[in-house]
Amino acid sequence: MSRLDRCLSVRDFEREARRIMPRCVEGYICGGTEDGASLDESVRALRDIGFRPRGLRVVEQRSSQVSLFGQDYAMPVGFAPTGFSAIVMHECDLALARAAQESRIPFIISGASSVPLERLQEATGNRCWYQAYLPGNIERIAKLMARLRQAQIPVLVVTIDTCVGANRENLQRLAFTVPFKMSASVVLDGMLHPRWSLNVFMRTLLGSGVPRFSNLYEEIGPPITQDPPNGFRGERDKLSWEHIRWIRENWPGKLVLKGVMHPDDARQAYEAGADGVIVSNHGGRQLDGCISPLQALPEVVAAVPAGFPVMVDGGFRRGSDVLKAVALGARLVFTGRPQLFGAAVAGSAGIRKVTEIFRNEISTNMALLGCRTLADVTPDLIAPVRVTGAWDQQAAA
Ligand SMILES: Cc1cc2nc3c(=O)[nH]c(=O)nc-3n(C[C@H](O)[C@H](O)[C@H](O)COP(=O)(O)O)c2cc1C
């Protein structure tokens, strides 16, 4: 049985991917910050919610279709932006964009990605959203926006949770740095993972050279082994609501803020003219000790007018996880690591299988919940998982 056939769930893909990736790549993809509390909390919070399904409803014809920003998507799942995906698969950005297009789900190009956004747009009929790591400098924002307009990006996603680089001790221990620097331990790590060295490292070097910071600013930047002009994080700590308001006045497309965790920020985003927010703690990769995005979601939904798109990401690994967020008011759920695990295990076929898994699980679980459409996935179908007194007594007996 092939590796791909063995993977029946996203967790299976994760297990296989961890075997293939060098430790420093695994640390970069899978890791969180400091004690990993935000990372753990995102996964744990999903287990704290259970379903209260309805029976005897005709669910023969089901649809998980969702409409957003004038597009119909096949299911309420999209690919979150993931920078440096080139270390998982040769031209991974392109494979992700194509798989998303084929599966009719949204794909967000990361500002820290390597395949030029113009190529990704060409491959998908100009459907990619773009995520920006913006400096608090209007002149520089304007230059990037000119490029995005030229490339006909329909949705600009501004990440607001990365004003500074977080404390990623795990990466320091593994000698993994951004910009990427070769060290003896990194070389040894690669040698101990020959499949990755051949399929990813050598293939990339021989095929297209060292990946570049292609989409961070207005022009194709230097290789990821060098600091981009103005630095990778230059002036991000100056970004404020003033810049968001300026962007709104000057950006004709849709505008989404990513990394919103506080209801007041969601309200402010709406008032500033944003078209949506993504509730996210950056996959546990920024502030450690954050509440989970799932916990933040209901208050964010309540803070904005009905119908204002609230999306969410962080820790979603099952179709049932996605449906819990939909029941709590999320229009769409983004995943970050799952499709990278798919890419690491089996390239494009692996990414496609991950989306199929989500689609099948969503369809099956909608039926088991008694839902024909996503509008039927309502808050009464979920409840906190709580061990009652009676259960405690039974357990003690
Ligand atoms: C390897 C990796 C790279 C990421 N790069 C970015 C990025 O460039 N921009 C961004 O806004 N978020 C980035 N994120 C965060 C994701 O967009 C998303 O918020 C998070 O991965 C969701 O959690 P999940 O991985 O548990 O699905 C990255 C996450 C990972 C795992």
Structural topology:
Layout (H helix, E strand, L loop, with lengths): L2 H4 L3 H11 L2 H8 L6 H11 L1 E3 L14 E3 L2 E3 L3 E3 L12 H12 L4 E2 L7 H7 L5 E4 L5 H13 L4 E5 L9 H5 L10 H8 L2 H15 L32 H10 L3 E7 L2 H9 L4 E4 L13 H11 L6 E4 L5 H9 L4 E4 L1 H33 L12 E3 L4 H8 L1
Parallel strand pairs: 4-11, 5-6, 6-7, 7-8, 8-9, 9-10, 10-11
Antiparallel strand pairs: 1-12, 2-3
Helix pairs in contact: 2-15, 5-15, 12-13, 14-15
Bound molecules: flavin mononucleotide (FMN).
Flavin mononucleotide binds next to loops.
Could you please describe the fold and organization of this structure?
- The protein is of the alpha/beta class.
- It is built from 16 helices and twelve strands.
- The strands form three sheets. Strands 4-11-10-9-8-7-6-5 form an eight-stranded parallel sheet. The chain has a two-stranded antiparallel sheet with strand order 1-12.
- A hairpin with a 2-residue loop joins strand 2 and strand 3 (71-73).
- It is globular.
- The model has no long low-confidence stretch (mean pLDDT 96).
- The structure holds flavin mononucleotide.
